[in-house]
Amino acid sequence: MSGTADRVAALSVQLVDVHQALRERLASLRAEAGANAGAPDDLLSHCLGFCAAIRTHHTGEDGQLLPTLRAAEPSLAPVIDKLIEDHGLVASILQRIGELLDSASMRAEPAALVRELDGLTAILESHFGFEERRIAAALDTLGPGAWSAEVFAPG
C-alpha cells in the first residue's frame, strides 16, 4: 500500500485509538475523584485537561470531519445528526463539571463531581461505540486531506 492508501485505511483505527486514549484518561480521572486522592488542585488540573481534550476532539469533528462525511455520504446524515446531538449533551456535562470545579462546594461535596464523571463516562462510552460502529467504514473509504490532524487529537 502506498503512504496515502495507508493513511486512508488508518483513519478508522486512529479514531478508535483516540477514543481509547480518552476512555483511559476519563477512567483515571474518575478513579482519582472517587478516591479523593491527591491535592484538590491536581484533580482540578486533571479535570480541566480532560475537558479540554474532549472539547478539542468534538470541535474538530463538528467543524471538519462530520461535514466532510455528510457531503461524501449523505446516507450518514441521521448518524451525523445524532453524533452532533451527543456532542451538545457532552458539552453540557463538561459545563456542569467546570461549574463544580469553580465552586467551593466541590471541596465540601466531592460526590457531586463523581456523579457527573459517572454520567459523562456512560454517555461517552455509548457515543464512542456508536461513532466507531457507524463511521469507521466511511472513514476508510475517504481520502486524506479533508480535515486536519486536530480532528483525531486526543488533546
Helix segment tally: 5
Helices and strands, in N-to-C order?
Answer: HHHHH
How would a crystallographer describe the biggest sheet? none
Write the CATH fold name: Four Helix Bundle (Hemerythrin (Met), subunit A)
CATH top level is: Mainly Alpha
Mean pLDDT: 81
Count of folded domains: 1
Give the overall shape.
Answer: elongated
Radius of gyration: 17 Å
> Which architecture per CATH?
Up-down Bundle
Estimated structural class: mainly alpha
Number of strands: 0
Helix content: over 70%
Kindly estimate the percentage of residues that lie in beta strands according to DSSP.
Answer: under 5%
Outline the low-pLDDT stretches: 1-6
Distance between the termini: 29 Å
